[in-house]
Amino acid sequence: RGRTSAQLSGGMRQKLGFALASIHRPELLVLDEPTTGVDPVSRVELWRLVSAAAAAGTAVVMATTYLDEAERAAVVIVLSQGRVLLSGPAADVVRQAPGTVLASADGIGPDRSWRRGHERHGWVPPGQDPPAGALVLVPDLEDAVIAATLQQEATDV
Questions:
Q1: Sign of dihedral through CA atoms 129, 85, 89, 18?
Q2: Could you tell me the pTM of the whole model?
Q3: Residues 38, 14 contacting (CB under 8 angstroms)
Q4: What SS3 class is residue 29?
Q5: Is the dihedral of CA 81, 84, 35, 59 positive or negative?
Q6: How far is residue 46's CA from residue 51's CA, in Å, rounded to a whole number?
Q7: What is the DSSP string of 63-81?
């Protein structure tokens, strides 16, 4: 109270922006990375506001790099360099993951591996066999997005 928006925290600024955008109950809300730079508590509060708007009938289109947020959407569209790589409900996007995701990057080059917490996952392109003894994973949304991006990079070379 009594502060300008420039004096608010990042989370409060994002919530204020959302409130201003939704005050007239629009039919469509377009949100560009609404939780970037927001603390975890404000992120949860902001998601409550977005969910309430959607439940009230507002269509929400959102760009995000946080895949746990993307999983909440009815439709996920994975874009890279202006191209649609994967699209559909999150479960369908995961099923569309190209190639094979491995639980270890052993025998996989650094350009086809990534860290997941304390582990390294690896990716083998479609049509290639994983290294002997490799543990094949059922991919999640993050693995699917990375695999699709690596596939695009491999075909763009």
A1: positive
A2: 0.82
A3: yes
A4: strand
A5: positive
A6: 9
A7: E-S-HHHHTTSSSEEEEET
Domains of the chain as residue ranges with CATH: 5-64 (3.40.50.300), 91-156 (no CATH)
Distance (Å, rounded) from C-alpha 25 to C-alpha 18? 11
* Cα–Cα distance for residue pair 16/98, rounded to 1 Å: 40
- How far lies 27's CA from each of 16, 54, 60, 127, 136, in Å? 19, 10, 9, 45, 44
Q: By the 8 A CB rule, do 149 and 112 touch?
A: no
The neighbouring-strand residues paired with 77 are 87
pLDDT, mean of each 10-residue run, the chain (157 residues)? 75 82 91 88 89 93 92 94 95 96 84 89 94 91 96 85
With b for 16 or more beta-carbon neighbours within 10 A and e for fewer, the 36-52 pattern comes to eebeeebbebbeeebee
3-state class of 93 per DSSP?
helix
Counting other chains too, the contacts that 71-78 makes at CB distance below 8 Å and 24 or more residues apart are 71/141, 72/47, 76/141, 78/144, 78/145, 78/148, 78/149
**Residue 102 CA, distance from chain mean position:** 20
